[in-house]
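::Amino acid chain::
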Amino acid sequence: MGLFDRISRVVKSNLNDLVSKAEDPEKILEQALLEMQEDLIQLRQGVAQAIAAQKRTEQQYKQNQNESERWDRNARLALQKGDENLARQALERKKTYLETANTLKATLDGQLTQIDTLKRNLIALESKISEAKTKKDMLKARSSAAKAQEQLQGTVGRMGTSSAMAAFERMEEKVMMQEARAQAVGELAGNDLESQFAALEAGSDVDDELAALKAQMSLGPATSSNQPSLPQANEQSTAAKSPVVDAELEDLKKQLDQL
């Protein structure tokens, strides 16, 4: 294979590829239908011309036939009058018109056959064009649906990598983090409230215990007149132990203050 043949093949393949990519089904169908309609118009014109020619031939045939019959009558009339020479001339004219009529009859028969064929082709082409119109509408609808589907798939595919979709994902994650922080803060606030109430309850117990302890420590002869008096030795012993009790009381107060 020569260099020019290879170059020619490469150029043709590239051109075919460009043409294939440039072909739009809807436009191609419209163009094909237009061409078919142009063919239909030309065929109709051809049929009309053939019919007009057939009509003209038929008229000529009838005229020559009529002339042939007229000269036949003239020949008969000349013979009746005894003019044989005139009859012979009339028969020659009859022969000429008759031959022309026979030729026109053959032409007319051929034209009628041709017209019949053209009419059948016209009907077939009209049927094909009607079918093509229906198919064109169907194919256009399918092409439009395919284009819409392709665009939709492309849009969905681009959404997976688009910055807008990424922004939505980031914002969703951010909202989820905010919700998690809010939930954590709520849990911490609830725990702190419970701890405060627990401290209050503990403080109440300590205060009650401290009040009871104070009441026990403050009992003496003036506040316990209803009780039997203790021996003197016990009073002295209790008085001797009062500083120890006071020290313990101070320790308890310090422990309460640290709570």
Q: What stands out?
A: The radius of gyration is 64 Å. Residues 17-161 form one domain.
